[in-house]
Every structure is written in structure tokens, then in C-alpha cells.
Amino acid sequence: MIILITSHANLADGLVSAFEMIAGHKNYIQALSLNTSGVNEFRRRLLAFLNNAPSPVLILADVKGGTPYNEAYKYYLAHSNKCSLVSGVNLPMLLEIGTNIENCTDLDDVKAKTKAIGQQGIEIAEDIVEDNDDLDF
């Protein structure tokens, strides 16, 4: 399975760079950004990537309703057997899925796990620490 991160500007490249700093380079994680070359060029690069992908693709988009998501969604609607689409990509999501996806083949299972992990990666710091809490710094 391949992970394709889509975003506005350089967010996708930055997430891949951060992932590689922490977990090392993985050939199956790629980035595709919407840049100043415009929507048509983004669409062309996205379709070329997805149409030539040798295995199923998990697409992680930055924002639901944004151009990278919308273009990926159009492809998903016509090819749901070849890809899944999840919005709200974040680094905890990418780290967990990216280090455990090599042997996954079920897109439905992967997208459900991806959503759960992404949500679990969002926390609000609390002012009060319980006595039994271990803090790792």
C-alpha cells in the first residue's frame, strides 16, 4: 500500500520530511502539493500518480473541501477499489500509519485506523498532573 499526502503549499512535503527525520525514509510515502502552478497542473500530477500506482493508495489530505481533497475525492468516487481518502492529516497519524502499513491490504481497515489515530493524536495540555501520571520529556 502507498500513502500519498496531498496539501496546499508545502505542508505535504513538510510532513514527509518530519516523518523521515523521526522514522526514516519509506519509499511508499509520497507528497503531492497544490502550488502556484494551479489546479489543472495539480490534477494532472494527481491523476498520473494514482493511475500508475502499483498498489492501493491511502490518500491523506490536509483539509476536507480544499482543492487537494476535492480532486482526490473525484478520483476516489470513480476508483474506490484503488484508493481511500482521509482528511485532516497530522504527524501522529502519519507516524503510526506510515510505520505499520507495509503489510496492509484492506483499504477500509486502514482508513478506519487512520481516522482513529489522527483523532487520538490531538490532545489539550492540562494544568493539573495526576500523581500517577508519568511525564516523558
UniProtKB/TrEMBL annotation:
Claim: Transferase is one of the keywords in the record: yes
Record InterPro entries: Bacterial_PTS_sugar_comp (IPR051471), PTS_EIIA_man-typ (IPR004701), PTS_EIIA_man-typ_sf (IPR036662)
Keywords, alphabetical: Transferase
Annotated ranges, domain PTS EIIA type-4: 1-122
Protein name as it appears in the record: PTS N'-diacetylchitobiose transporter subunit IIA
Species of the source: Lacticaseibacillus huelsenbergensis
